[in-house]
Design a protein that fits this description.
heterodimer, A: about 200 residues, alpha/beta, Pyruvate-ferredoxin Oxidoreductase, domain 3, six-stranded mixed sheet, 7 helices, about 40% helix, about 20% strand, B: about 550 residues, Rossmann fold, five-stranded mixed sheet, 20 helices
Amino acid sequence: MKKDIILAGVGGQGILSIAASIGLAAIDSGWFIKQAEVHGMSQRGGDVHSDLRISDKEIASDLIPEGKADLVISVEPMEALRYLPMLAPGGWLVTNTEPYVNINNYPDLQNILDEIKAYPNHIAVDANKIASDLGQKKSANMVILGAASLFLDIEGNKLEKSLHKLFQKKGEEVVHSNIKALAAGREFAEKYIKN
Amino acid sequence: MDKLLLLGDEAIAQGAMDAGISGIYAYPGTPSTEIMEYVMNSNEACEKVIRSGWAVNEKTAMEAALGMSYTGKRAIVCMKHVGLNVAADAFINSAITGANGGIVVVAADDPSMHSSQNEQDSRFYGKFAMVPTLEPSNQQEAYDMVHYGFDLSERYQIPVLMRLTTRLAHSRSGVRRKPVRVQNSIQLPSNSRQYILLPANARRQFRHLLENQVHFQADSDSSPYNVFLDGKDKRLGIVACGIAFNYLMENFPDRNIPFPVLRIGQYPVSRPKMKKLYRECDEILVLEDGFPVVEELIGNFFGEGKKIKGRLDGTIQRDGELNPNKVGMALGLVIPEVKPVSKAVTARPPKLCQGCPHIYSYNALNEALSGFTKGRVFSDIGCYTLGALEPFDAINTCVDMGASITMAKGASDAGFVPAVAVIGDSTFTHSGMTGLLDAVNDGSSITVIILDNATVAMTGGQKSSATGKIEIICEALGVEKNHIRVINPSPKFHEENMNIFKNEINYKGVSVIIPRRECLQTAAKRIKEQANMKETEKVNVS
């Protein structure tokens, strides 16, 4: 088992909560993990990414070699395209379709979405809509994680368990709404693949 | 014991706590900030009464650590690479005094300049000060090496430098802890002259340091972190320093490298091990993240020896951090070409947060300066450096901590008036106060804008040493009271602020304007923490 995952987004969008959820589940599975993050200047609204590697064998590099990633998980569509070249042939792209517009020259969204959809192994999910339909706008990231979980090979309820650990400080209600978002994301992705 | 999932920085912090430090000293700086933060947030550190908290700058941090070491206790001091420039006077001289209690100096380098103004390599400082230097390759080593470094420091009574780079500092992995060591008790150095660097003593101490070099060498020769790995194919010998070893391994999925490899984690470089590699192999490839320190050391000045490949001969790009692909290409492996990024993707540079107080300071300043020729704003290191970007285009320099005030002074001395300095509150107390005193003493005509957002913002909102003290410091340094102006950088005060800027810019002398409003990120964090505390209180009461 080896999954090399690029997590992408904009500074402040909270991609690290996705990373932490997968990381905890990987540790729970007895796997090795390396996760390189970006701190500092880019966190101020710049594009950020994190290299997350999980494996049942020891991992050498903290960085994923270019063009070798198994999965790109992006919480923002233009950032998904930025990291698409990191994917190995046959790798999967899971991305939010809701743009984060903090620049004046944000490109035409339809173009971006068309390019994403031109890549065969993709799941494009309107995570913000699914999250707000559930009445929990803040858990859009967990919808995306749920959709990506199809490709993570993490057993049973280990992701749910890591959400418990991550959010228990904030109370049972927050834990459950995040788990619900996770399930909704997964359900969406299962249907998306079939269509 | 369970593995902890830790950043390289956090592994160093946990390692230091477990190795029995009595104190940690640091100034925030990417990528080193999380070392101190981990200790500050640790209940364990609190129970053990380990001293923690932010220093005014890296020099004061280094000196305080040296003072703790003087008493016989263990201390760690942490900074980013350029912070070691600030601490250099204390650091270099600490090699002459030597240590009493163990002292480990951590410098986190930032090759590729992810969040820095240069990519200098701290191993040069290790060589400059002639102290043993450690370079971990992964999180577990980062943890283990702190224990090892403190023992090394106490064995030879010498500060030990530990150098890591951004990728390790900010990458998480599993770390297994060692047994916890108790803190040292107070025991002053047996030689009461050790720390008095009067020339007569300093000469003796320096000779002692020189004599110790042979021991540092011998220690490197037997170090568990300098490992010779044999390989059958002697056409190439590989030197892999620190994290470069991981990138090397990444290129051999079965982990079998056909070539002999010298893995380096401790300096000075082990001569016998390097000699073995050099003798056995036809060519040498040096892999190191940062400057070509080892490559230069073993390079043949006259070009008559064996071929040494690395960053100097162009095998590897001279600048920028290493990665698996760069190392693969240096090995001559076939690296599949990566597709270019879609043309639809545009750059998304970092920017000031929406509603950030700096925005309104720059808007007012730009308007106040609109009647003058361009190029008058000397700025500094912090979030406000983003004022260089569109739509502000408001600043003209950013060099090192504190340089805004002194460069404005120099420009003003040259007759370039008005000259404006823009500096943050924490940067001001870090290295701006002395420059302001220069300007006052010289009667220079400069306008100093101290952007007071009550935090060290860029590194994630650490406590600023300047909070609540700026006016009184400026006044004490001799700035006239009626030319110390505090304003609220908010759009509703734009006209008023702009006029204050204009008046002070026209004033021939030193004036200070302090736009004061809390950083939005820090405010949000504070409000959240307060709410959490209230929540906890409620639970406790019920």
